[in-house]
Amino acid sequence: MSRVVRDLSFTQADFDAFARLSGDDNPIHVDPDFSARTRFGKTVAHGTLLCSVLRGLIEELAPGARQLRQSTMYPAPSPAGMPLRFEAETISQTPEKMTISLKVTRLDDGETTCVGETEIAR
């Protein structure tokens, strides 16, 4: 099976830019003062921002493929400035379809922040 991995971290400026583009300006993503008073203690990534990076990895595994479905869960936050590992791995495939597991992990403590699966048409 094929696997692709990408390590990166997001800055507050990245969260702010994504909020402007997406229209999702929830204070948990863009207001450090507000976020400091939450259980997270700092701003955290938009789930769709994480999925955007994962979609890029899917494209590496299957260039030009059409995404049929995706499901993701976010068991832990991805704070600004935290190094993250993004992974996409083929778990099954036929000539018509491919199923890919998706995962984002914080590199400092190994905590999974996003986990899911997608199915694509080839």
SS summary, helix count: 4
By CATH, the architecture is named Roll
Q: Count up the domains.
A: 1
CA-to-CA gap between the ends?
15 Å
Question: Describe it for me?
Answer:
By secondary structure, this protein is of the alpha+beta class. The protein has a single domain, classed as Hotdog Thioesterase (Thiol Ester Dehydrase, Chain A, Roll). The chain is built from 4 helices and 5 strands, in the order βααααββββ. It has helices spanning 12-22, 27-30, 32-36, 47-61; strands at residues 3-8, 66-73, 84-93, 97-106, 112-121. The protein has a 5-stranded antiparallel β-sheet with strand order 1-3-4-5-2, covered by helices on one side. The chain is elongated and about 50 Å long. The two termini are 15 Å apart. The model has no long low-confidence stretch (mean pLDDT 97).
Keywords:
122 residues, Thiol Ester Dehydrase, Chain A, alpha+beta, five-stranded antiparallel β-sheet
Summarize the structure.
This protein is of the alpha+beta class and 122 residues long. It has helices at residues 12-22, 27-30, 32-36, 47-61; strands spanning 3-8, 66-73, 84-93, 97-106, 112-121.
